Amino acid sequence: MVDVTKLWDKRYLFGPNPFDLARSDHIFFVLAITCVIIAAAAKIIVLRAERGSPKKILFGRVFHLFLTIGILLGIWYGARIERIPWIYTHFTALLLLIVGLVWFGFITRFYLRVHRSAQERWQDEQVKLQYLKR
Questions:
Q1: Residue 69 — very low, low, confident or very high, per pLDDT cuts 50/70/90?
Q2: Domain that includes residue 32, residue range
Q3: Does residue 15 fall inside a structural domain?
Q4: CB of 4 within 8 A of CB of 32?
Q5: What's the structural domain count of the chain?
Q6: Which of 7, 39, 72, 118 could form a disulfide with 67 if both were Cys (CB 3.0 to 4.6 A apart)?
């Protein structure tokens, strides 16, 4: 079972942090790498999507989200290794993750409200264009 009680500890959040890296620091780094890999996959989907497709817009937003969070967590991890004050605190990493969750919420809202209907309209338009070309 994962112990999350230390996330509310003032010493854990704001320091001073020990010189050796904690297990959670490595987890944040793996999360940063995972975000960059997801961003690369989303970019491949964007590049392969047809021109004007709503899927291109949706995965473009997903790409920007995961690339931004991945790079910022990677920078945080580097600052953690170099012990740069105020940047290397765990509070900063958790703040980045919260910003990512809020951003993901906006993307989900876009998907639920706009994307699905736009995708259906675009597919109907593609069917019309397919028969008009004949």
A1: very high
A2: 21-132
A3: no
A4: no
A5: 1
A6: 39
